[in-house]
Amino acid sequence: MDNRLGWIGWQILLPGSGRRVWDIIHHFGSPVEAWQASENDLQGVPCVGVQGARKLVQRRKNIQFDNLEKYLEKISCKVLTIDDETYPYLLKCIHDPPPAIFVRGHLPQDDCIGIAIIGSRKPSPYGLVVTETLAGELARGGIEIISGMARGIDSASHRAALMNNGMTMAVLGCGPDIVYPRENEKLMKQIIEKGAIITEFPPGTMPEPWHFPSRNRIISGLSSAVVVIEAAEKSGALITADFALEQGREVMAVPGNINNPKSAGTNKLIKQGASLVTGALDILKELGIETKDIKSQQKKSKKVTLEVNEKKVLAVLSEIPQTMEQVINLSKLLPEEVAAALTILEIEGLIRSLPGKMYINAGL
């Protein structure tokens, strides 16, 4: 056995247990020596104990590296160990990096800047619009968008990156062959084709609640900054923000409605010192990055010339969804005037239509 198999073996034995794995390996001096340790020797590791040693030895006997290699080849999945040159440099630098990661797709070069965009699984229309805007602008500017492929903000950020021909990476809390949530099967295929999915959990591992905090440390570990969009006071996104701070990453947050519980966590982050984000340039300036693409996009958006009726309709729309009837009442315009204005505003990307014929302002 060589070190490569040793790293992979320990990743399979104790996925999601980065610190424990490193304690064991450091105790014996190398992954191979740790792998070959007897049950009695394993009992001497403080974080293992008698019962833990027995379980590790039993599970170790069941691992068949040849079968694993064949299956990984079948699903076009690579395994990168911490000794590999292509293992992401930023992730390698955190306190407890996974000894090995499973990757489907293509990882970017280490000089590519990645920014994590995370938030609520049940975002408001405002949260979705902000996510699509930020992720889209950053992706067009050559920034890689990193998230966790969960429902809501995560999925919206991946889709926005893909729609803008950008790079995106999804970090999973399950095996590389498991689609979670199930409705993201198409999205997962698109990410693999144009970016990468990455996980520390071996094939066949189903999602469990305890997997996601572990997954979150990888999201932040891969990123130069973490941007939180809509998060309640007790949210997995805030756990990721905590990991980011521990890892020396920048934490940023988008301010939200003070009456919306989904914004309580993000507003609290800003109170505690997180950088306030109102646009993509805020993120880049905080990181000392200049991109001409984003600046030109913003200048272009400012050149849109609106007619009087279009300005009136835009003025009454906010992040709160409104029906056409509500827009008619607030704008004091005729139904046909409102319909025409809504069409133009949507074409210009200034508003967004939602299911149920509702409309919101996309520029807030």
UniProtKB/TrEMBL annotation:
InterPro entries: DprA (IPR003488), DprA_WH (IPR041614), DrpA_SLOG (IPR057666), WH-like_DNA-bd_sf (IPR036388). One of its GO terms (biological process) is DNA-mediated transformation. Residues 303-357 form the DprA winged helix domain. Transmembrane segments: none annotated. Residues 78-287 form the Smf/DprA SLOG domain. It comes from the Bacteria. It holds the Pfam family DNA_processg_A. Belongs to the DprA/Smf family. This is DNA protecting protein DprA. It comes from Desulforamulus reducens (strain ATCC BAA-1160 / DSM 100696 / MI-1). The lineage of its organism: Bacteria, Bacillati, Bacillota, Clostridia, Eubacteriales.
